[in-house]
Amino acid sequence: MAGLAQPVALVGISEKGYVSLEISAMGVGGHSSMPPAHTSIGLVATAVAKLEAHPFPMRLDGGVGALLDYLASEVPFGKRLVFTNRWLFGPLIKRMLAATASGNAALRTTTAPTIFRAGTKDNVLPIGAAATVNFRILPGDSVAGVVREVRRIIDDERVQVRLLKKGNEPAPVSSTASAAFGALHRTIGSVFPGALVAPYVLVGSTDARSYAGLSPNTYRFSPLPMAEADIQRLHGTNERIRVADYERVIQFYVALIKNFQP
Question: What pTM does this model have?
Answer without folding.
Answer: 0.88
